[in-house]
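Task: fold both queries, return tokens.
Query 1:
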Amino acid sequence: MIQSVPLFIGGEFCQSQTTEWVEVTNPATSEVIAKVPCATEQEMEHAIKNAAETFKSWKDVAISERARVMLRYQHLLKEHHDELAELLSKETGKILIDAKGDVWRGIEVVEQAANIASNMMGETVENVATDIDSYSMIQPLGVCCGITPFNFPAMIPLWMFPLAIAAGNTFVLKPSEQVPLTAMRLAELFEQAGAPKGVLQVVHGRKEQVDTLLKHPVIRAVSFVGSVPVAQYIYKTGTDYNKRVQAFAGAKNHMVVMPDANKAQVINNLVGSSVGAAGQRCMAISVAVFVGSTKEWIEDLKTEMAKMQPGAWNDDKAAYGPLISREAKNRVVALIEEGKAQGAVCQLDGTQCNVEGMPQGNWLGPTLFTGATTDMSIYEQEIFGPVLVCMEVDTLDEAIELINNNPYGNGTSIFTANGAAARKYQHEIQVGQVGINVPIPVPLPFFSFTGWRGSFYGDLHAYGKQAVRFYTETKTVTSRWFDDDIPTGPNLTIQLR
């Protein structure tokens, strides 16, 4: 029997009354494993209003108690880590090691949410003028919402609602309709951690439900991760309706390879960062920029990439899993064919990949291009598949110019043994997250995820101190007390309670 995914409203799991459902399929087999509802207008309204009502009391709960909820939650997440990873693998197709990483990076953000008090401390200046003091307080916004993608169904929701709720807000989560099961389990564990009913709501749906969140007057802030066109729509619509919005969009991440780099490390890291998770991550390396003589390493890179083959989530020999859907695979295959037609040389072609016993899976083998130019589709567009495009330049300056001319600015890395080259690169590159001999420089959660330019719409980023500022407002108080008002006399007592 196919599972019907519930809604989570007011602390209760309930079946939707909708007539519109979306099938959830296993990407490795195309088998339907669940169906997820497109919440009705009344259900969406109920979730938002319940969150608004709960906020009235939750914002006044002591910050230490809010932190304790997160402490209990991270403990439960660790206890159920492997279970969550297996569930995540089955609905995304990720191999188990990738799924475990997905869950663990989310847990790290919950740990940071347990440290919320130190991140909500205001500032005080005594005697800004004679007998006048000023101080600031950090206070929650109200009802916030998150709209999350398919590729990290544990990590990205955990980027959002734990910090927002720890800061004193309530939260409405709309996970991807392609992978709703992990989000529902996260909600179950959050309830078990002692979170009050109503601080977290989980709704499901597509554009209609997203539009409700973007336009509803009660929603104060919107967090989103997804594709460029949708991020642009989310940002414009949300801000048009006077919401605070952070919208994380696409990427085209380059790795620069210098002649003095460790060749074995370069090849190993290029292979893993380009085809790992089937290339379905916004921090994947999709362009390798070979400087000078390093272009001679491409043949060895091809040999190692060819060894990386996809497979089922529980196959220990699999390097990565399938693409999320048949539509996603068809899109990547079309871009590969377009790259060939535009004159790029396809050194490795993964379009005919098959996995034994799983003929209906959305499989795509590792694919490697050389001879690409910046006006080709395989360079201009985020492919979101196990595809690596190789570019060749003569100098580091040319590499920096190439990358800075690209519209995206999510992540980049340089592999070199030269400290001066590394410093020049990190200083001049116009990308938010830079790795030096690190292929995927995703920051730990006491920093923030800081994509730039066409990879991000907004001003305050996810997790870290910036996320706390995103989910809060600053109130400044200026006070003056008069000496003449101080009570005096023999009968004056101070009562403590």
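Query 1 returned. Query 2:
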Amino acid sequence: MIRAGSHVSTRQGYRKAAEYAVSIGGSAFQYFPKNPRTLELKAFNRTDAAKCAEWCRLHGISSIAHGPYPVNPASEGEAARRMTLCTLNDLDIAEACGSIGVIVHFGHGKGKDPLQGYRNIIQWINSVTEHWHGEALILLENQAGDHGPMGTAPEELVQIRSLVQQPDKVGFCLDTCHLFASGEWKHGEWSSFAERARRIGFWDHVRAVHLNDSRYPSGSRKDRHAAIAEGWIGREGFLDVFATPELFDVPFVLETPASMDGTHRDQLTLVKQLSGEAFK
């Protein structure tokens, strides 16, 4: 079966977050390294982070950090500088916690020239990686299209990675809801997308999956997550995802609404059942 978990709170510390993730049936988890609503830097507890890393190593648990929502790699000027410092802070925390990397949304340009937005993303990544010397990766996440088409296609992520100065410091996070909502994954056509991703080398750099169902149909460009198998992707769609060989060793993390008990325990149980069925 696959490695799967959910997004968890770090209110009681990074080590406690890892323990909680496992207590509800996870073998992976995601967390915000700091306040997800601002670009403010955080002086974090390195002892707690080291305990988290050690505990996860002992128990075979994978983790990923998710950067603050205001980070937009397509920005420029002073805003881009602040976002660079913010992500360097996130990478430092992720490294200390033993995490794979920090998820950053692809970004969206606000100017009249769409190509400038892509140039800004390349420059921003270069600015971060120039000052980052750890193992934690920048994990670019595909977008749903609710802010425009930028960052919805796997070809864009692959191309951006190929153009930055240190591509080895960049990986991808695939969000299933975003992929579906953007229309890049059409209902019943996962195999077509998987083969397309295979041809361009996209799977080679996917280091995490956001496992989310979609409240709206393919092509809606609405980023609204549904519980697993309760949205438009549905049971059959996830069976196809789980059967993709390139994803067998990639952690899956739920960002879906919690179940009635306030946790993702039931959904994780379902994910394990579906993944086991997909592997038969």
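Both queries returned. Flag for query 2: The domain at 3-279 is CATH 3.20.20.150 (TIM Barrel).
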